[in-house]
Amino acid sequence: MTPREEGFLLLTSQLGNPERKSLTVAQLRSLTVKVQGMEAAASDKQMQLSDLMALGCTRELAERVLQLLSEEELLEYYLQKGRQAHCQPITRVSQGYPAKVRRRLGIDSPGCLWARGDVSLLDTPKIALVGSRDLMPPNEVFAREVGRQAARQGYTLVSGNARGADRAAQETCLAEGGNVIVVVADELYRHTLRERVLYLSEDSFDAAFSAPRALSRNRVIHSLGIGTFVAQSGLHSGGTWSGTVKNLLCGWSPVFCFDDGSCAAEQLQQRGAVAVETEQLKDLALLQNAAGNLFNL
User: Fold this and answer.
1) Residues 156 and 248 in one domain
2) At what angle do helices 137-152 and 165-175 cross, to 10 degrees?
3) Of the four listed, 81, 88, 147, 247, which is most buried by Cβ atoms within 10 Å?
């Protein structure tokens, strides 16, 4: 890792310690703006308390920054554990960080994406699939067809590995010889390495499942792909609904919703989602006419 990447992790990651108080997004952004104002000659020396306070940091924040940056042994220990688990960090300042995620989410993009598997899949064209855990039969057919057509038409499928729509699409895509990126909400290292699969998690490789982690990763799924397909959603409830509504509000990626006649699908369409039938998936490129140059985003 470069010194810049190491410094970024030291300031923003818990490094396996839930009690470690890393900087918030707002604090990091403020610090970045301040440090960028330093003269080039001064930026080469080791940061001192007086330097940070001269930049406008409070003593409390300056001391905290220096404490975080001093924990290099903890960082090396955590990185070594990651290497042993075949997990590698891709920080927001790393060259390999997904450009679409950084551009679409801005300062809300994860400080670090930990990867386990084939990282080259991040450089492939991608479509995303989200949906409910308890699927109606037609909706399951739709989810599987998204996975099938992703494989046949040369797109990597991005999903979240949840029961229902996610796994139906993922397994169908792999069975058809396609590639899959799975954004998980539990311990990354527990997922078995598989050919043509990349597992990603936010900020750590060993954090356990939690509802907030499951909701948070939705923005990564929606922003990784050039379009997001919704197989089924609850109405005003559930991760699929909240993630898709936030996408439509923020414009992370075009949304294509299976036109199943449900109130949820109608509401999503009213908010800007494009209604799609299963038959339309046979030529994904044609959908660009419905979303306005989808594949140029």
Assistant:
1) yes
2) 40
3) 147
pLDDT in tens, 150-161: 999 999 999 999
| Residue 176 DSSP SS3 | coil
pTM of the model as a whole: 0.91
No. of H helices and E strands in the chain? 13, 9
- Kindly report, residue by residue over 227-266, the tens digit of the pLDDT: 999 999 999 999 999 999 999 999 999 999 999 999 999 9
CB 165 within 8 A of CB 232: yes
Q: What is the CATH number of the domain that holds 156?
A: 3.40.50.450
Order across the sheet with 255-258: list the strands. 88-91, 112-117, 197-202, 180-183, 156-159, 126-130, 228-230, 255-258, 274-276
Residue 104 lies in a domain: no
Q: Do 257 and 136 share a structural domain?
A: yes
Residues 128 and 269 in one domain: yes
Q: Which domain holds residue 36?
A: 3-84
* Residues 252, 196 share a domain: yes
Tell me how long the chain is. Answer: 297
The single-letter code of the amino acid at 108 is D
Fill in the amino acid letter for 174: L
Largest alpha-carbon pair distance within the chain? 65
